[in-house]
Amino acid sequence: MRKILLLLFSFVMTVHAAEKSVWLDELNIKAMSSGWGATKANLSVGGNTINIAGEKYERGIGTHAVSEINVKLDGKAVKFTANVGLDNEVSSVGSVVFIVLGDDNELFNSGLMSNNVKAAPVDVSLTGIKLLRLLVSDNGDGMNYDHADWAMAKITYSGAKPTIVEPVRPEPYILTPKPGPKPRITGPKIFGARPGNPFLFTVTATGDRPMEFKVDGLPVGLKLDSETGRITGTVVDKGEFITTVIASNSKGKAKRKFKIVIGDTICLTPPMGWNSWNCWARAVDDQKIRDAAKSIKDSGLINHGWSYINIDDCWMRKLNLEKRDEVDYSSKDWYKSLVSDDAVLGGSARDEEGNLVPNNDFPDMVALTEYIHNLGLKAGIYIGPGPWTCQGYVASWKYEDQDAASFAEWGFDYLKYDWCGYSQVSGNQTLEELKKPYEVMRDALGKQPRDIVYSLCQYGWGDVYEWGEEMNGNCWRTTGDIVDTWSSLYSIGFSQDKQWKYAKPGCWNDPDMLIVGQVGWGPNLHPTRLTPDEQYTHISLWSLLSAPLLIGCDLTKLDDFTLSLLTNDEVLDVNQDPLGKQARRLYNDSDMQIWAKEMEDGSVAVGLFNLHGFKSQSITVNWSDLGIKGKYKVRDLWRQKDIGSFKKSFTADDVPVHGVKLISISK
Ligand code: GAL
User: Fold this and answer.
1) Rounded distance, CA 335 to CA 349, Å?
2) Active site residue 654
3) Which atom of ligand 1 lies at the shortest distance from residue 389's CA?
4) Is 481 a catalytic residue?
5) C-alpha angle 81/70/98, rounded to 5°?
6) CA geometry: angle at 406 spanning 405 and 412, to 5°?
7) Catalytic residue among 25, 403, 413, 418
8) Preceding amide of 195 cis, omega within 30
9) Sign of torsion, CA 6 8 9 11?
10) In a mutational test of the pocket of ligand 1, which residue from 481, 492, 519, 521 has the highest number of ligand atoms less than 8 Å from its CB?
11) pLDDT tens across 64-120, in order?
């Protein structure tokens, strides 16, 4: 008995003797992710002493939602302890949830934590656990002000010392089936042009080349190039023409109805193309625009309806704004006092007649648009109503008519008109003031013998969706600029419900451009920080929203996954549907949302979105919520596969974290 007791005693002593502890702040901070700023040791993310509801802590980790800290253990760790809460350093109210996972089982969940809430104690056993994950979720409502502290965070262990491992980046997986060899006609089913203006539309199809195109029933004045599918010419009178497009190759033939509407309204489906801003920003030049156009063609994107190549800011002459407050803006000569001496970008912004002179990175605008048009694509340009653009390049103030005429002469088909520098010359931001510059350019564009898509960019101010149509706007930004993070995507994309009813053919709400692929606001690019599932969510949601689809990445570096995201014709059909309705939100809680879009053929496109930060979820859409009854077919649009028939509801199992199931429901 005595022997046994002695053995037991020495065993307990050995276990105890072997127990050690390490503060989280002593481990590799650099591998701990933070949704904003960088995770800090023994300080809040803002660099102050950790302070939760007035209580100060000398140790711990200061981070920001959405954050993930992964700790590798050897199964012999004992426990994790900490005090968690939001840091006092912010003035506004944040909201987060602290979660501790042990090999993907939830060991601790703080529930919703807000500012000035006492720290929640964490004390969890780590017995047998190999991977400890410390997560801070943004509570599904965006990450603003979410300064989160793991105060006094400590791991007690008896085996190997815990180490931090980088969060695992989920591998991309491709759902879009590869296009088959037979012809399949893609792109919009309707196209609008104004009478008397040059007409340019390229019929597109996937399938083996060479391919021959035919269009039966083209209105007088239009002709088709049977090899390229390009329709050009001019139609003199207004009218609607239902044509039949036929595409044939050695493997077969495809036919589809295509409606041409000659009238006052253009842009009858959301514009699809590319814009230079989200990759090149100020590093844009003529060659990069040509490369993008060529890549749309070479990558095959052109065969799926991608058609605009748009230059954003920074193609004009840069101004020297040092003396901007001394200038008389009522004089037409205002810009002459702001000439910059920059060798490439400087020099007089206008010629002697007041015509815009592009900077030296854009030697010949006419040659550039010709290059783009010759590929079967269209060209877009950017300027603003103020004296200068957001980047300080000359803009159209006092030269609106002349600039619109230049854009038409140069051969542009799209204008993004960005408020920015207009604040220098505008009065109070009354509704009248907000509208004024857009009316001026509306009238200037109206005088041009060319169809130019008019894109209003003023970040949604004054509820622009209510009056964008009155400006003859074809699309209007509803938000500030997007960046390639979940938080940006989430807060912009999932807040687009209120303006749904203003979307219709010719009028589109614009939640900003796409952030997939190599992005970065130039010249240095990086792969989008969105996970593959977040990218599926992005493209699905923008398609449901009938949003303009402007790719923002370097098209010369397209990887297979990004290409697959942008070439799913069934998904793009949701965006390009001729009815032009925008999806509405049917269901919303902090973990999941369901959006539904009415389609022209009577079907409904439905997106089941999982907003949960670390758990896949089953999501159900009920027929009663869609206002339908009885048996309906459900099709998986990304996989382009029928799922089956369902009577009352459909449940998507295991929708991945921040991912989506995009389906079509039809009779
Ligand atoms: C912003 C605009 C961006 C981009 C940028 C260029 O105002 O929202 O999309 O165009 O200006 O400076």
Assistant:
1) 7
2) no
3) 12
4) yes
5) 55
6) 95
7) 418
8) no
9) positive
10) 481
11) 998 999 999 999 999 999 999 999 999 888 999 999 999 978 999 999 999 999 999
